[in-house]
Amino acid sequence: DARVTQTPRHKVTEMGQEVTMRCQPILGHNTVFWYRQTMMQGLELLAYFRNRAPLDDSGMPKDRFSAEMPDATLATLKIQPSEPRDSAVYFCASGPDGPLLEQYFGPGTRLTVT
Amino acid sequence: GNSVTQMEGPVTLSEEAFLTINCTYTATGYPSLFWYVQYPGEGLQLLLKATKADDKGSNKGFEATYRKETTSFHLEKGSVQVSDSAVYFCALSTGFQKLVFGTGTRLLVSP
């Protein structure tokens, strides 16, 4: 049963530290999405990639966040420096190409910045 | 722009009750519509979808019909179970695989 995997599942860090979250999309999927979920803002799209190329990162604070896909099996989301307001659950999702537009979500990384 | 509006939660029901969660949308073009479910501590899972007007999506006893005339995609289930307790998200896409989500509706089912 193919799944999106994310590491770490939980991360506690101090303000100012760098945080790196990793995602392994489902093999064969060529679109990858990063979302952030908080109680106040709900689910927000941060960035998405198609065939490893960034298509839209307008939802991402550019000064501290960066997203990359070094290869087809790895997507990364970095925050440097981290701030308490970045505390949230970060989800990665992947999807196959085509019109059905399905997305498969990973279990998320729960980030706490103190 | 594209948007999705869901009813406020939580929705509290007893087991075996009938469920309706309302969802309406605003979109340019002809969107595809989705319901996702999020169980506690997990990511979202696709529950059902409909890609054109009058299509009915169904899965696990849940149903939703794409109503273009009322721009709605209400989620229904005839008899809910305690295990259905979760947060339900309505979403749409008009292409390029970018989903627009509603704010989510929490469902609590008691025995």
Map the helices and strands:
The complex is a heterodimer of chains A (114) and B (111).
Chain A: E1 5-7, E2 10-13, E3 19-24, E4 31-38, E5 42-50, E6 53-56, E7 65-71, E8 74-79, E9 88-95, E10 104-105, E11 109-113
Chain B: E1 3-6, E2 11-14, E3 19-21, E4 23-26, E5 32-38, E6 44-50, E7 56-59, E8 62-65, E9 75-77, E10 86-93, E11 100-101, E12 105-110
Parallel strand pairs in B: 2-12
Antiparallel strand pairs in B: 1-4, 3-9, 5-6, 5-10, 7-8, 8-9, 10-11, 10-12
Biggest sheet layout of chain B: 6 strands, mixed
Distance between the termini of chain B: 41 Å
Assembly classification: heterodimer
- Greatest contact between two chains: A-B, 22 and 21 residues
Order of helices and strands of chain A: EEEEEEEEEEE
What value does the average pLDDT of chain B take?
A: 93
Approximately how much beta-strand content do the residues of chain B carry? over 45%
Folded structure, characterized:
Chain A is mainly β and 114 residues long. In chain A, the strands form two sheets. In chain A, strands 2, 4, 5, 6, 9, 10 and 11 form a seven-stranded mixed sheet that branches. The radius of gyration of chain A is 13 Å and the shape is globular. The model of chain A has no long low-confidence stretch (mean pLDDT 92). In chain B, the strands form three sheets. In chain B, strands 2, 5, 6, 10, 11 and 12 form a six-stranded mixed sheet that branches. Chain B has a four-stranded antiparallel sheet with strand order 3-9-8-7, with no helix packed on it. In chain B, 0% of the residues lie in helices and 50% in strands. Chain B has 111 residues and is mainly β. The model of chain B has no long low-confidence stretch (mean pLDDT 93). The N and C termini of chain B lie far apart (41 Å). Chain B contains no helices and twelve strands. Chains A and B meet through strand 5, strand 9 and strand 10 of A and strand 5 and strand 6 of B.
